[in-house]
Design goal:
By secondary structure, this protein is of the alpha+beta class. Helix content is about 30%, strand content about 25%. The protein binds 2,5-anhydro-1,6-di-O-phosphono-D-glucitol and manganese (II) ion (2 copies).
Length: about 325
């Protein structure tokens, strides 16, 4: 059997992997481990629904708008319900911030963890069989458990995350996560119903040749962003843009590249949400040796002021993010 760099064989189940990691920390209570399992379980259920979306009456618009004023797809709503249910039943979470809910969702006040999530990322791709994802961030609450959850528990900097990850519903389904000790990837084996270790220690190449940005918005970007895009074109880099952040990020992390969602004349704060899109991927990127910035500041150092705050995002291979930044200054 193929031994991974972690001393566990490739093909180890996610459950065993989590248990092994927990055993390495004698004071671990197992709550965080259980929470990661709950998220993985919700991912399996969503995976099943995503796979059947053309057959069941779950594709298309829901007829409502979410807190961002964006059209909700039925699967956005279903994925949100699935996650809230899994985290409610699991009992390890005191509060959830979700893209689909304006307010904080309060769960078990005795619990120590807060989850911020984008239940389904890349909604515009749901109906057309293109990769979509789920993003999650986990924080330890600051206020004592048992009492009501406070805003200081929710509005924490990304650097305070205790774990973060994503599930990619792609040509295969994968769960990728970190607890701050490297990034690990598990591929879902549907006939077994298990996630199996497939990418033991994921590293983002220091440099790359892929740039990912919605070039249709080119004229709405700041001059330095246009200049950097011109630079990429001049280098004959490949332009690759799926329009699902998780999928674009995942490809660039494996192959080397930069993903950019700058602010535009129409969206002066950018489009992506700090708490449940940028922070999780920023932690993964850094743990894999990459970088994430809003153009001026490290994403993980931004002090959030609001639940659904947006941020520009430049993320991926370190040298490419460095280069982009040199255009800002
Ligand atoms: P969501 O589906 O959760 O609202 O996120 C969509 C995001 C992200 O996944 C993607 O990279 C970006 O929106 C695409 O936006 P544009 O269509 O403006 O390029
Ligand atoms: Mn999203
Ligand atoms: Mn979403």
């Amino acid at each position: 059997m193929n031994k991974s760099n972690l001393g566990l064989p490739i093909g180890t189940t996610l459950d065993r992997f989590i248990k092994r990691n927990q055993d390495e920390f004698p004071y671990a209570t197992g709550e965080l481990s259980q929470l990661v399992r709950d998220i993985a379980l919700a991912g399996k259920i969503i995976n099943r629904e995503v796979n059947q979306s053309g057959l069941l009456d779950i594709s298309g618009g829901f007829g409502e708008k979410n807190v961002q004023g964006e059209d909700q797809q039925k699967l956005d709503v279903i994925a949100n319900i699935r996650f809230i249910r899994a985290l409610t039943n699991g009992g390890e979470v005191c509060a959830i911030v979700s893209e689909e809910d304006e307010e904080v969702i309060n769960l078990n006040p005795q619990s120590r963890y807060v989850v911020c999530m984008d239940p389904l990322d890349g909604s515009s791709n749901i109906d057309v069989n293109v990769s979509i994802g789920t993003i999650f961030s986990i924080y330890r609450r600051k206020s004592p458990s048992g009492g009501p959850v406070q805003m200081e528990d929710i509005l924490q900097k990304g650097s305070e995350q205790v774990a973060a990850g994503y599930i990619l519903y792609g040509s295969s389904t994968m769960m990728v996560y970190t607890t701050g000790h490297g990034v690990h990837g598990f591929t879902y084996e549907p006939s077994l119903g298990e996630y199996l270790l497939s990418h033991d220690i994921m590293k983002c190449p220091v440099d790359g040749k892929i740039y990912s940005v919605n070039e249709g918005s080119y004229n709405l970007f700041d001059q330095h962003v246009m200049d950097y895009i011109e630079y990429c074109r001049g280098q004959h880099y490949s332009a690759r843009y799926i329009g699902s952040l998780v999928a674009d990020f995942h490809r660039n992390m494996l192959k080397g590249g930069i993903y950019m969602y700058p602010k535009t004349a129409k969206a002066p704060e950018g489009k992506l949400r700090l708490l449940y899109e940028c922070n999780a991927l920023a932690l993964i990127a850094e743990q894999a040796g990459g970088r994430a910035t809003d153009g001026h500041q490290r994403i993980l150092d931004i002090e959030p002021k609001a639940l659904h705050q947006r941020s520009p995002l430049y993320i991926g291979s370190k040298s490419m993010v460095d280069k982009m930044e040199s255009f800002v200054k």
